[in-house]
């Protein structure tokens, strides 16, 4: 089988009920990058949320324009800009159209820390620093005009990029990834995906550190979010949404301080010291937490190993049917998402049935029926009941000694 690489756009526009957003045009600009570092981008004012992505040397990124609601037309943008890295000044906006647009902070969100040292990432690359006539022509062809409204002056309003505006991303945007993304995720973390699964289901703040290129790490953010899907009615209303922030940096600290649940990645090592911003820190394949009550969740137990064995068994069966029988439905992503969706539904279906019973007693037999280890997952179950506000009595004994 041939697996596609990570050089694919992470975010793709899809039709939604409120707006008609654009499809990013294919810009064939080559992949060498610019040794001095810089990012050329086409930007616009999104509904509110622009999912950040890391940029390599000199790159192009497209964003849809939001005019007034109902005024949006396909392929409209409100700004084109180039971000570069200066050895003395750091990230800076080198060029933009229109010249009076407020792009404060965009130089940090559009170029990941350290990406000036690499030649490529998963965004489009520019090969001609200082020559932006093609971008200017693209802007003139696609620019949207922001209508003046109450309190709006002649200059264009600022472009917003911070994670706090994530909630307006859907349904106008959907997340895409290269084929083989889930397979790489499973191979990279191995049995530890079950640890990430528990933290994701508990809606913890998960921060993944990696040096650039950051593209493949953004895909891990996506895969991690897929671990916590639940389709049962009445589940999830009491817990915060787990927000996929993808790339974050020090410019996002103020926004992250108020978030209670997210999955994100960063190239900023300084985040490891800022423990108040996260619950779980992932450095390469090392998953850790500074919270004492979450320490038991870092241990792989027998039920985790059994789930991982079943997942790989199903994957091998799927791969066989694809290669031998040429049956490509379902795909590996479908299998991955469905595996954890069914696991999560089984857990919550059992918990809801017990909570509706007369004695509300959750036993070791119930835990085994949910695919959990009665002893090894006791702490996880207690946190789960508290997080989702499910009223049952856990009668599984806590062993007093190893």
Tell me what the structure shows:
With 402 residues, this protein is of the alpha/beta class. It has helices at 106-109, 133-142, 181-189, 193-201, 215-225, 253-256, 302-323, 332-356, 364-369, 378-388, and strands at residues 11-13, 38-43, 59-60, 79-86, 90-97, 124-125, 173-175, 205-209, 243-247, 262-266, 280-283, 286-289, 361-362, 393-394. The strands form five sheets. Strands 9-10-8-11-12 form a five-stranded mixed β-sheet, with helices on one face. A three-stranded antiparallel β-sheet has the order 2-4-5. Strands 1-7 form a two-stranded antiparallel ribbon. Helix 6 links the parallel strand 9 (243-247) and strand 10 (262-266). Helix 7 (302-323) packs antiparallel against helix 8. The longest helix has 25 residues, at 332-356. The model is unreliable at 1-73 and 146-175 (pLDDT under 50).
Beta fraction of the residues? 5-15%
**What's the average pLDDT?**
73
Strand order, sheet with most strands:
9-10-8-11-12
Calculate Rg over CA atoms.
Answer: 23 Å
Oligomer: single chain
Put simply, the count of helices is 10
List segments where confidence is low: pLDDT < 50 over at least 5 consecutive residues.
1-73, 146-175
Question: How many β strands by DSSP?
Answer: 14
The largest sheet, given as strand count, sense and whether it forms a barrel, is: 5 strands, mixed
Give the topology string: H per helix, E per strand.
EEEEEHEHEHHEHEHEEEHHEHHE
Q: What sort of overall outline do the alpha carbons produce when their principal axes are compared?
A: elongated
Distance between the termini: 46 Å
Helix proportion: 25-40%
Structural class, from secondary structure content?
alpha/beta
């Amino acid at each position: 089988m041939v697996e596609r690489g990570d050089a694919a756009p992470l975010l793709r526009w899809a039709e939604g009920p409120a707006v008609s957003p654009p499809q990013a045009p294919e810009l064939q600009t080559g992949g060498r990058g610019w040794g001095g570092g810089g990012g050329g981008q086409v930007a616009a004012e999104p509904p509110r949320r622009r999912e950040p992505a890391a940029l390599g040397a000199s790159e192009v990124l497209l964003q849809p324009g939001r005019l007034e609601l109902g005024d949006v037309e396909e392929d409209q943008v409100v700004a084109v800009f180039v971000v570069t890295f200066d050895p003395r000044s750091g990230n800076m906006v080198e060029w933009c159209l229109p010249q009076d647009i407020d792009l404060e902070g965009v130089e940090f969100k559009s170029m990941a820390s350290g990406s000036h040292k690499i030649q490529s990432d998963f965004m489009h690359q520019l090969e001609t620093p200082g020559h932006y006539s093609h971008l200017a022509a693209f802007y003139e062809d696609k620019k949207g005009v922001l209508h003046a409204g109450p309190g709006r002056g002649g200059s264009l309003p600022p472009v917003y990029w911070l994670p706090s505006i994530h909630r307006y991303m859907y349904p106008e945007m959907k997340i895409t990834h290269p084929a083989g993304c889930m397979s790489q995720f499973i191979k990279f973390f191995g049995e530890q995906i079950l640890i990430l699964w528990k933290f994701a289901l508990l809606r913890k703040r998960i921060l993944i550190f990696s040096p650039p290129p950051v593209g493949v790490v953004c895909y891990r953010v996506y895969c991690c979010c897929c671990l916590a899907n639940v389709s049962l009615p009445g589940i999830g209303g009491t817990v915060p949404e787990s927000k996929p922030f993808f790339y974050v940096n020090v410019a996002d600290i103020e926004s992250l301080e108020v978030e209670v649940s997210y999955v994100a990645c960063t190239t900023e090592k300084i985040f490891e010291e800022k423990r108040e911003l996260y619950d779980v820190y992932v450095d390469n394949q090392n998953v850790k937490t500074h919270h004492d009550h979450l320490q038991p969740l870092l241990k792989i137990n027998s039920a985790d190993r059994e789930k991982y064995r079943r997942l790989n068994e199903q994957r091998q069966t799927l791969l066989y049917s694809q290669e031998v029988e040429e049956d490509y439905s379902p795909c590996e992503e479908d299998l991955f998402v469905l595996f954890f969706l069914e696991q999560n539904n089984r857990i919550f279906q059992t918990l809801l049935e017990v909570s509706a019973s007369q004695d509300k007693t959750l036993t070791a037999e119930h835990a085994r029926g949910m695919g959990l280890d009665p002893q090894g997952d006791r702490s996880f179950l207690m946190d789960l009941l508290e997080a989702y506000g499910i009223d049952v009595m856990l009668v599984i004994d806590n062993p007093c000694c190893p």
